[in-house]
Amino acid sequence: DGGQMDIAMLQRTQWKLQDTLEENQRFYQTMQKAVEESALALEHAHRLNDTAFDASPYIYVLFDDRCRPIDCNPASCAHFGFESKDALLAGLMDAIHGSLPVQQPDGTLTPSLESRLQYVLENGSMDMEVEMLARGATACMQTAFRRVEKNGKTGVAFYQVDLRPLQEAKNALMRQDRLLSMVNTVASSLLASSAEDFRTNIYKALQAFGRSVDVQRVSLWRNVEEDGHIVGRQMYEWASNDDRLREAETFGYLPYHILPNWAPVLKAGRSGSALARELAPEEQRFLAPHNILSILMIPLMYNGRFWGVIGFGDDLRERAFSEL
Fold this sequence. Notes:
The protein has helices spanning about 1-55, 75-80, 85-100, 115-125, 165-190, 195-215, 265, 280-285; strands spanning about 60-65, 70, 125-135, 135-150, 155-160, 215-225, 230-240, 245, 255, 270-275, 295-300, 305-315. By secondary structure, it is of the alpha+beta class. Strands 6, 7, 8, 9, 10, 11 and 12 form a seven-stranded antiparallel sheet that branches. Strands 2-1-5-4-3 form a five-stranded antiparallel sheet.
């Protein structure tokens, strides 16, 4: 009986071991599947990162721990004037050395790229604006260095953004703001002038506006109520072809309520500009009889309220009035 009990115990132990082995096998298979899924997810993430890396409009270069460039994106090749990644990696250091001026605008000496890379390897990061020569022109570049770990190795990621487009956009907004301020200052003076001087002053003002902005038409509109709606009624227009002030209603009325893209902007005290062909159909019909290709509308605010509009029309060319 004792022997039989030992055999039974051995059989139970064998069954338990078999169950354990099967459970371990199932666990291994589950873990193997999880690892494979994680590897696929990681590969997918790498592909997404590579796509974002290649598609980025910003300059990106990766340096190794010996301050040598080892990777870059297409935007870097375009910015530094190289036809391929291999050409950039071979010639980047010389290109950057040649593009760095001896001094920065504040008079400080420009540190070498190698000294900055070494600093980041030791300290982790560095951010600055630096002036560089880009294809013969001086450019202000927002520059960032970051220490990174890739494939078990330490390196430095170098990012740059050309600030010139941002500065140009800022300057365009400032020019429009100055024009808006000038128009409203002159308009306030006109509205405060005596009746006998008003016509002469309005002619001089519209003529000056037209010539300074280089357009063929400048018109003055005053807001009135018509059939329950606030509309702009044309009071005067200056035209470059005969250089005289017209009091006839060339356009008649400016119906704000049927100009969906303009009314909210003008009523809020902001200027608006557009190419005629890009306007809504009802807005194009308003301009079509006068062959206007580009238009700029500046609201006139008098004593804090929306008094009217000064309109600038270019009959000769399509233009972006942000160039003012």
